[in-house]
Design a protein that fits this description.
heterodimer; A: 296 residues; mainly alpha; B: 322 residues; alpha/beta; binds adenosine-5'-triphosphate; binds iron/sulfur cluster; binds magnesium ion
Chain lengths: 296, 322
């Protein structure tokens, strides 16, 4: 008995020393990942504190000051109805981050549930679900998202739904693959012998143990989702004016590029930096977690 | 009879071949009885257990036979019936206590989940009973252990938790598939005694699958000896261990000088296990049998009384009267 107590006392400490430190160690060693982290933090802080940083309102029209050049008053200038572009970018960051996270988390949750059910029961349900996912994956993502958004009608909610739909198959596949492995694990079979019903086994035994690849995928997908939201916005299939959405801003702004260069340039720069930040972090996480990438 | 398996044959189908894992297996277990299933690796012990619980893999196919539990044919149960049978009527303890528990769920919650399912009580009350059931399987400081994760427990403690889980309903039949093989010899003895006591207290029958004839001698009332997916000999522990009839049983026992000796694995018997894809027409043990007769290779022996008139002691061997 005393041997057992000894073991239990020392284990958690040993575990945390092993898992937490190398992660930070690796991040610190990779300057690009650090840069990504910095960009993400910057965007996060700017969007959280937007009302404190800027005295303007993102949608308030101020015709006398339209197309003002970048200045001390309007850092990034103003647009065709005199709105402060810097302010709109800050609020746009809020929207992009919020929408990106919401869409990907939503797709992750739904995809994981579908994948776990599909993998756990197998058979015909599984076949049907996987073929459906193959169909979604067979289309180029952007084209399918455009088609769905255009069919449902151009607004932000429909754009989010469209992006969620094209993101779901990845999570279904991930969760299904994990489930297939977990289903053969003894503790899942044992749970069956204890008389625990299938839905409960899926919810409490399969999904919690299948979650880590899903969570990684979520962090990798947020940047992509933000870019897609902006793309749909740019094409007029996403957020509609006067919503301060980066893609929509660029879409209107680029018509004025030659005369008022700042109008589309700054939202474009914001979008560029945000998607760079997410991609750098994504690559960093992949490097840390993927042993094959580690070896090279 | 609590459980009656009659003429059960199970085949595993794959792309290339068809493995006949069980061939006309018949035996029964009475209320409150502890029956040992012995046999070398690959003899079909686990397949038998999984058939009873309806947990065979999808590529398995039950070609003949019936399994009746309390008079109900288990092979014709619906999914819903299985759910209410598993855990509540028939429980199972697996060989590997290391992997039989949910790795990221606390012990107390795992037990409470199962108890909550079987008794109509609140989760809080189920948790209280979970702690009590840990005490019942002789775990010291059950409140503390209930808050731990499986990786924090030793193998012996984990197997006690698994037993508590399997016994929580409590079931009328407990299938224990080599429950002590993965444990230290001293802990093996304790865990076995614990199972025996719990079963006695609740009137639970046990189907005890083991490699260890010492274990059989210690706790079982009856024994079923399996070889290559067939029952080759069955009888009371006394009959099978002290006057074995089948050459395979004799070899098993001959390999074990002192029956009371604990933790002795079955000694290897010369020759290879038969190919389950192509079963011979005659006796499956013939290639390894020291006393095979001409008829052994032509005709398949069936279970018959070992000595005339014996109802309990049966053997499947042409040479039984020699
Ligand atoms: N899923 C499966 N697919 C194909 N064949 C299988 C499968 N499960 C078991 N078998 C076959 O059934 C035979 C019996 O296996 P079983 O696991 O019942 O043996 P056992 O008596 O439990 O052995 P052990 O003592 O090693 O646990 C084996 O020879 C094996 O080839
Ligand atoms: S039937 Fe023949 S071959 Fe088979 S065990 Fe008996 S004596 Fe040996
Ligand atoms: Mg086995």
């Amino acid at each position: 008995m005393s041997g057992t107590t000894l073991k239990t006392e020392s284990l958690p400490a040993a575990r945390s020393a092993k898992t937490v430190n190398p992660f930070w160690y690796k991040i610190r060693r990779n300057p690009l990942t650090l840069l990504g982290l910095f960009l993400l933090l910057l965007i996060l802080l700017l969007s959280i504190f937007a009302p404190l940083i800027s005295p303007y309102e993102p949608t308030k029209i101020n015709i006398p000051e339209r197309f003002a050049q970048p200045s001390a008053d309007h850092w990034f200038g103003t647009d065709e109805v005199g709105r402060d572009i810097f302010t709109r970018i800050l609020y746009g960051a809020r929207l992009s981050l919020g929408v990106g996270v919401a869409v990907v988390v939503g797709a992750g949750v739904i995809g994981t549930i579908i994948g776990a059910v599909s993998g756990y029961f197998g058979g015909r349900i599984d076949q049907l679900i996987m073929r459906l996912m193959d169909i979604i994956l067979a289309f180029p993502a952007l084209v399918l998202a455009m088609a769905i958004a255009a069919t449902l009608g151009p607004n932000l909610q429909n754009a989010m739904l469209a992006i969620a739909i094209i993101k779901i198959p990845v999570y279904v596949r991930l969760a299904r693959a994990e489930t297939l492995a977990l289903r053969e694990k003894l503790f899942v079979k044992a749970a069956v012998t204890f008389g625990i019903p299938s839905w409960r086994i899926i919810v409490r035994h399969i999904i919690p143990n299948a979650l880590s690849p899903v969570i990684i995928q979520v962090t990798l997908d947020i940047g992509d989702a933000i870019l897609l939201v902006a793309t749909l916005g740019f094409l007029g299939l996403g957020a509609q004016p006067p919503t301060p959405e980066w893609g929509a801003m660029i879409s209107i702004g680029w018509k004025y590029l030659l005369d008022y260069w700042w109008y589309p340039t700054f939202p474009g720069l914001a979008l560029f930096l945000a998607s760079c930040g997410f991609n750098l972090i994504g690559d960093g996480i992949r490097d840390i977690l993927d042993p094959k990438a580690n070896r090279s | 009879m609590l459980l009656e398996i009659h003429n059960l044959s199970v085949e595993f189908e794959s792309m290339q071949d068809r493995v006949k894992a069980l061939q006309a297996v018949s035996f029964s277990i009475d209320e409150g009885e502890i029956v040992g299933i012995v046999g070398e690796s690959g003899s079909g012990k686990s397949v038998t257990a999984l058939s009873i619980l309806g947990l065979l893999e999808k590529n398995a196919h039950i070609s003949t036979g019936s399994i009746s539990y309390k008079g109900k044919n288990l092979l014709s149960l619906s999914k819903k019936d299985w759910q209410s049978l598993r855990g509540k009527e028939i429980g199972m303890v697996f060989q590997e206590p290391m992997t039989a528990l949910h790795p990221t769920m606390r012990i107390g919650d795992q037990l409470a989940e199962v108890i909550h399912r079987h008794r109509s009580i609140s989760y809080k009350e189920a948790y209280r009973q979970a702690v009590a059931s840990l005490a019942e399987v002789q775990i010291n400081d059950p409140e503390l252990v209930a808050r731990k994760y499986p990786f924090e427990l030793s193998g012996g403690m984990r197997q006690r938790v698994v037993i508590a889980l399997a016994m929580s309903a409590p079931p009328d039949l407990l299938i224990a598939d080599e429950p002590t093989t993965a444990l230290d010899v001293t802990i093996q003895h304790e865990v076995l005694k614990l199972m025996q006591e719990l079963a006695q207290k609740r009137g639970t029958s046990i189907m005890l699958i083991t490699h260890d004839l010492g274990v059989v001698a210690q706790v079982c009332q009856r024994v079923v000896v399996m070889y290559a997916g067939e029952v080759v000999e069955t009888g009371t522990t006394q009959e099978v261990l002290h006057s074995p009839c089948h050459p395979y049983t004799k070899a098993l026992i001959g390999a074990l000088p002192d029956l009371a000796e604990q933790g002795q694995p079955l000694l290897a018997i010369p020759g290879e296990s038969p190919d389950l894809r192509n079963r011979p027409d005659g006796c499956v043990f013939a290639p390894r049998c020291s006393c095979s007769l001409p008829i052994c290779r032509e005709d398949h022996p069936v279970l018959e009384p070992a000595v005339s008139g014996s109802l309990t002691h049966q053997v499947s061997c042409w040479g039984r009267n020699q």
